[in-house]
Specification:
The chain is an alpha/beta fold. It folds into two domains: 1-151 and 295-334, Isopropylmalate Dehydrogenase (3-Layer(aba) Sandwich), CATH 3.40.718.10; 161-280, Isopropylmalate Dehydrogenase (3-Layer(aba) Sandwich). It is 39% helix and 15% strand. The protein has helices at residues 16-25, 27-30, 41-51, 65-68, 93-109, 123-128, 136-145, 173-179, 182-198, 225-239, 256-259, 270-280, 316-330; strands at residues 5-8, 35-38, 57-59, 73-76, 115-117, 154-158, 163-166, 206-210, 243-248, 264-267, 286-290, 296-299.
């Protein structure tokens, strides 16, 4: 991969700075792809010193990051100072996190970076500052939509053991029921299949589509949505030539033997998808946003304010996100 990855700062008071520093220190051991960190160099330097880590930081342009990466952690300033201490977000937190995301997207769209990798954000901190999106996924879709037309963002959680996609994302169960439709399931599945082919090199992706209700509705006795919403989507996808099964009872989809029968599980709502993958692969699962005109991955965990700055943060999920972003960039169609 010739281009570096653009790594956002995330919430400055969270563990994003910790895992960034730890990942860079393991660059040679793990043969990590080159990346640059978008944020306030002074804040990252304070965190490195607080952790007792000897990391050389150098401010660069994105195009100089690859040449710098072996000797120093490249920093691309966003022009926004971050003053928050570990575990204590302040008035600079939301602005710093947002500026980093905007710049990362601008860099990858302009061709200065090969992919966007995002450190965790604190949604409650952003909401207090007027952030009007449910999460990263929806905000990235808005930024992408200013440059090109996109169908919809799709959130995939990927690990070597399991890949899952929730059809409805960061909404309440009540709202998920209101949003769920045959068309939404079909559109989501098409985007997943296209991405598995183009980004993951799977020639004929196999999808397992969960039911909504317990036991996939028990032929309507536990709810009719699986018959009226989910099953028609499966029929449409099959007629279009996709390798899909469902609606399947969600409680029997995720044991080891079942996981061998599909490449991705399509689930109806957030927790139905995220509970199994976070149980199986909490430390190395990666959040991937599909349906965007650029690649975006992220660690599959939050800001962990309680351990920020303590040295306890595990960089495994960020390392997995960096590696997957590089893999997807290398597989990008030309």
């Amino acid at each position: 991969m010739a281009q570096p990855l653009a790594l956002t700062s995330g919430e400055p008071a969270g563990i994003g700075p910790d895992i960034t520093l730890k990942a860079w220190l393991r660059r040679d051991e793990l043969k990590l792809p080159a990346f640059y960190w978008l944020g306030d160099a002074a804040s990252l330097d304070r965190r490195a010193k607080a952790l007792g880590l000897n990391v050389r930081l150098v401010e660069v342009r994105p195009e100089d990051a690859v040449g710098t990466f072996a000797q120093a952690l490249p920093i691309v300033p966003t022009g926004w100072a971050a003053t928050a201490g570990p575990g204590h977000p302040d008035d600079s937190s939301a602005g710093a996190a947002m500026a980093s995301i905007r710049q990362a997207v601008a860099d990858v769209i302009a061709g200065r970076a090969g992919a966007v990798v995002t450190n965790p954000i604190a949604k409650n901190v952003l909401y207090r500052a007027g952030f009007c999106h449910p999460g990263h996924t929806e905000y990235l879709a808005e930024l992408a939509a200013t440059n090109t037309s996109i169908p919809q963002p799709v959130m995939m959680l990927w690990s070597p053991a399991l890949a899952v996609v929730p059809v409805t994302i960061h909404v309440s169960i009540r709202e998920a029921l209101a949003q769920l439709s045959t068309d939404l399931i079909v559109t989501t599945a098409r985007i997943v299949v296209d991405s598995l082919k183009s980004r993951f090199g799977i020639a004929r992706p196999r999808l397992a589509i969960s039911g909504l209700n317990p036991h996939a509705g028990e032929d309507g006795s536990l709810g009719t949505e699986d018959q009226t919403i989910v099953a028609p989507a499966v029929d449409i996808l099959r007629k279009q030539g996709f390798d899909v099964r469902g609606p399947l009872p969600a409680d029997t989809m995720f044991h080891e033997a079942a996981r061998q029968t599909y490449d991705c599980a399509i689930c109806m709502y957030h927790d139905q998808a995220l509970i199994p993958i976070k149980t199986l692969a909490f430390e190395d699962a990666v959040n991937v946003t599909l349906g965007l005109p650029f690649i975006r991955t992220s660690p599959d965990h939050g800001t962990a304010f309680d351990i920020a700055g303590t040295g306890k943060a595990n960089p495994s999920s960020l390392i997995a996100a960096l590696r997957l972003a590089a893999r997807m960039a290398d597989a990008r169609p030309t």
